[in-house]
Amino acid sequence: MADPRFYKKNGPFTLADLAKVGQCDIGRGDPALLMTDVASLNKAESSHIALCRSGKYVHALENSKASACILPVEMAEKAPPHLAILIAKYPHRSFALISAAFYPEQKAEERIDPTAVIHPTAKLGQNVEIGPMAVIGAHAELGDGVKIGPLTAIGEGVGIGAHSIIGSHVSLSHAVVGHHVHIKPGARIGQSGFGFFMDPGDMGGHVPVPQLGRVIINDFVEIGANTTVDRGSGEDTIIGLGTRIDNLVQIAHNVHFGKGCVMVAQVGIAGSTKFGDYVAAGGQAGFTDNLKIGTGARLGAQSGIMRDVHEGEALAGSPAMPIKAHYRQIAMLKRLVKENQKKINSR
Q1: Fold category of 174-347 in CATH
Q2: What pLDDT digit, counting tens, does each position of 269-291 carry?
Q3: CATH level 3 topology of 13-102
Q4: Alpha helices in the chain (DSSP H)
Q5: Considering the entire predicted model, what is its pTM?
Q6: Of 16, 37, 95, 303, which is most buried, counting CB atoms within 10 Å of its CB?
Q7: pLDDT tens digit string along 90-142?
Q8: Is 253 a catalytic residue?
C-alpha cells in the first residue's frame, strides 16, 4: 500500500470497473467484487489487486493474499482458485492504467508562491502552480494546469503546453514544450551545446559557434532528473511524441528523436544523430555524431554506436555489433581463457 503521506488514493472500484480501465477481460470472479488498492503479489492483502507478468512469479502468485490478479492468458490456469482474474494482452500496461485510477496525478491548483519572480509580459493560463523562488522570464507562456517547481528558471520566450509538470531546480530556455510533458528535477534544457571551431594550435584559441536553434519537446514526453538537452546549433533539437528519457542522459545539439523512443540512464548522444520511432537504448550506451538510427532499433547497455543502425536491428558491445555476434564473441573469449588456463595448469 502506498504511503498516504505522499499519495492520495481513489476507490474502491469494482472488478468490472478495473477491467474497463485496464482494457482487459474478466477471466474469473464476480464483476461486483470491490477492490480497494493495488499491491505487489508478496505485499497484497484481501481486496487488493496485483500483477503477475510471467511464470517467473508463479510461486508468489500461488501464495499471494490478493483478491484479484492481472495476468496473461497462459498464466490463468496457474492462479489459485480464490483469485479473481483479469486477462490482459499486456498485463504490465493494464496494471499501470489501473494503478493510475487508484492514484491519479494531482491536478494543479492556481497557486503562485509570493517569492516567485514573474516578468510582467509572461502569460499564464488557468490553474497554474508556481513554486517558491521560481523565475518566469519575459514573454514566456504557460498553458492551463502547468506546474513549476521551486527554484526553477523558465527563460525568455519559452512556451509550455497545458498540464505539463516542470520539477524543481530545472533550467529551461530556448524551448517550446508540448502538452502533458514531465521534466524532472535538475534537468537542463536549451543551453548552448558543445559547438566551437577547434583550434589546431596555430589560431590563437578555440572559437565558439553561436548556437541559434531551439529545443522542441513534443507532447507526452518525459525527461528524467539531471538530464541535459542542448539546443540546436542551427536546426532544432527535437524530442518526439511520447519519448521517455531517463535520468542523467546527455543529448547534444541537433539530435532528433522520433516518437516513442526510450533512452535509459547515462546514455550519451553526440550532435546531429537522428533516431527513428521506438528506438530503445540501454544504460550508458554511447552514440557518435551524425548517425541515423532506424525505427525499432535496440541497442544494449554500454554499447558503443559508431555506425548507422538499420531499422529493427539489435546491437550490443563496443564497438557495437549484431547481438548474436556479440554473444558468440563473449562465448569464444571464455573458451579461449579456459583453454589457456588449462595449458598453464598443465605445465
Answers
A1: UDP N-Acetylglucosamine Acyltransferase; domain 1 (2.160.10)
A2: 999 999 999 999 999 999 999 99
A3: 3.40.1390
A4: 15-21, 58-63, 91-102, 323-346
A5: 0.91
A6: 303
A7: 999 999 999 999 999 888 788 999 999 999 999 999 999 999 999 999 999 99
A8: yes
